Amino acid sequence: MIKIKSPEEIELMRESALIVSKTLGMLAREVKPGVTTLQLDKLAEEFIRDHGAIPGFLGLYDCPSTLLTSTNMAVVHGLPTNEPLKEGDIVSIDCGALMNEFYGDHAYTFEVGEIDPETKKLLEVTKESLYIGIREFKAGNRVGDVGFAIQKYCEDQGYGVVRELVGHGLGKKMHEEPEMPNYGKRGRGKKFVEGMVVAIEPMINMGTRRIKQLKDGWTIVTADGKPSAHFEHDVALVNGKPEILSTFKYIYDELGIESNEEDEFRQNPLILS
């Protein structure tokens, strides 16, 4: 059953989402060659706890870490390791936090130093597909409208859209109804109604859409060994329109990136603190 959130609950969820956003912003200045994802994981846990929240992934489904860090051919659910990041790598950092009894959960794929143009394009297309999907999250539309928009945009550019892993509803549980696939048919699936909150998260592969799981029981990788990208936002349906609760602006401030990509999805300006 889909759990509808009141306006007050959505504002509490915005606080939870922004803790994750701030954590990713802090990590943005730490992602560089020579750093290990285990080091990033330790920093993230300390940061989340210092800001009055609880790591959302740690212990959930027996997850052993605060972050899920997926490098290069890893799609999602990569466990932090002692292996240093290298120049030219990409790493998806997925992070969750529990605050005000609600979860925040979102992700960003970072460049490690200079990356090759082909991989950079994969990241750009994947991130743009996230916003293309978010535009379809509006009153009267259905789950399939979001999935169709993401799938068409990415497949038209020759990329593989992962089927087995999907976005989800978000609230007092990390994973609520409805599931939010990144593929689908227009007009199919559950209808969007006021007060829904979902995590939309395209997982897009440079080559085949097919994936496999490593022996650690967590890490999902592309079947052909080509890179994969992953971006995720928490989005509420407010006044019939998508309202992004999370933000990449903390990341962009650290990296010196100018962007207004989120502005159309905010009914009030975001005040960074």
From TrEMBL:
Keywords: Aminopeptidase, Hydrolase, Metal-binding, Protease. One of its GO terms (cellular component) is cytosol. A divalent metal cation 2 binds at D105, H168, E201, E232. It catalyses: Release of N-terminal amino acids, preferentially methionine, from peptides and arylamides. GO terms for molecular function: initiator methionyl aminopeptidase activity; metal ion binding; metalloaminopeptidase activity. GO terms for biological process: proteolysis. Substrate binds at H77, H175. Removes the N-terminal methionine from nascent proteins. The N-terminal methionine is often cleaved when the second residue in the primary sequence is small and uncharged (Met-Ala-, Cys, Gly, Pro, Ser, Thr, or Val). Requires deformylation of the N(alpha)-formylated initiator methionine before it can be hydrolyzed. This is Methionine aminopeptidase. It comes from Zhouia amylolytica.
